[in-house]
Amino acid sequence: MDGDDARTFQLLVRIDSEEERSALEQALLRARASELSEVRRRNVRLVAGYGDATTRDMMSSESDRAQLRWTMLDRLLAALKDSESGGADR
């Protein structure tokens, strides 16, 4: 790699029908929405000043992890959408 830690992983997922593709997309959308809700909930608690410094540090760390999960789900959804448009060429 060229100095950074970026990696690309290729996942192969068997999808036998448009119904399965739609179900996968819906599951990913729901998971992403859940993570976004968690990020927002934790951020509201942080802004409101809940807890002591240790509790806020823990909430901040948990919020960061939820944000990372949201980001990865977003990337996975984008890859799924990209495969729709490029799938016929493969």
Brief summary:
The chain has two helices and no strands. The protein is mainly alpha-helical.
Main beta-sheet annotation: none
CA gyration radius, whole angstroms: 18 Å
Helix content: over 70%
Distance between the termini: 27 Å
In quaternary terms, these chains amount to single chain
Total number of strands? 0
Structural class call reads: mainly alpha
Discrete helix count: 2
What percentage of amino acids are in beta strands? Answer: under 5%
Which ranges are low-confidence, i.e. pLDDT below 50, for 5 or more consecutive residues? none
Mean pLDDT: 85
Task: Summarize the helix and strand pattern as letters.
Answer: HH
How would you sum up the global shape? elongated
Structural write-up:
This protein is an all-alpha fold and 90 residues long. 72% of the residues lie in helices and 0% in strands. The protein has helices spanning 18-48, 53-86. Helix 1 packs antiparallel against helix 2. The chain is elongated, with a radius of gyration of 18 Å. The two termini are 27 Å apart. The mean pLDDT is 85.
Give the topology:
Elements: H1 18-48, H2 53-86
Helix pairs in contact: 1-2
Question: Keyphrases for this structure?
Answer:
single chain; about 90 residues; mainly alpha; 2 helices; about 70% helix; elongated
